[in-house]
From TrEMBL:
Protein name: Uncharacterized protein
Recorded superkingdom: Bacteria
Native species: Murinocardiopsis flavida
Keywords assigned by UniProt, alphabetized: Membrane, Transmembrane, Transmembrane helix
Transmembrane segments: 6-27, 48-69, 75-94, 106-125
Length: 128
C-alpha cells in the first residue's frame, strides 16, 4: 500500500508543481489556486508559487524517505515530520473546499483529499 501511496503523492506533488510553474509563467490558471482571486497571478503570488515549489520538493523528499525510497525513513525526525505534513495536508482541505473560486473548490479539494490520504498511508506505515 505504501508503494501506491508514494506514487500517488508524488504524482499529485508534481501536478501541483506544474501548476505553480504555470502561475509563475503568467498563464491564466490563477482561478485554480491562491483563492482564485486573480486569473493571472500578481507578482506577490508568483513569488509565493516559487516558494510552494520549493516546499513541494521538500515534501517529496520527506515522503520518499519515510516510504523507504531514500534513507532515514524510520528516524524520529522523519516520522514526526511526516505526521506534521499529514496534518498540514488535512487542514488544507478546508480552505480549498470553501474557496470563493468554484474552480479551485472543484479541482483542489479532491486533490487535497487524495494528497492527505496518501500522506496518511505513508505516515502510518510500519518502519520504512
Amino acid at each position: 500500500m505504501t508503494t501506491a501511496a508514494i506514487a500517488v503523492a508524488l504524482a499529485v506533488l508534481i501536478g501541483l508543481a506544474v501548476m505553480q510553474v504555470l502561475i509563475i509563467a503568467g498563464r491564466p490558471v490563477g482561478e485554480y489556486a491562491w483563492g482564485g482571486q486573480h486569473r493571472v497571478a500578481t507578482p506577490r503570488l508568483r513569488r509565493a508559487a516559487a516558494a510552494a515549489i520549493v516546499l513541494y520538493v521538500g515534501f517529496a523528499l520527506l515522503l520518499m524517505s519515510r516510504a523507504g525510497v531514500l534513507p532515514g525513513g524510520s528516524t524520529g525526525v522523519i516520522v514526526v515530520a511526516t505526521w506534521v505534513l499529514f496534518a498540514y495536508c488535512a487542514v488544507a482541505i478546508v480552505p480549498n473546499s470553501i474557496s470563493r473560486s468554484r474552480r479551485e473548490r472543484l479541482v483542489q479539494t479532491p486533490v487535497s483529499i487524495v494528497l492527505a490520504f496518501s500522506v496518511l498511508v505513508i505516515a502510518a506505515a510500519p518502519g520504512a
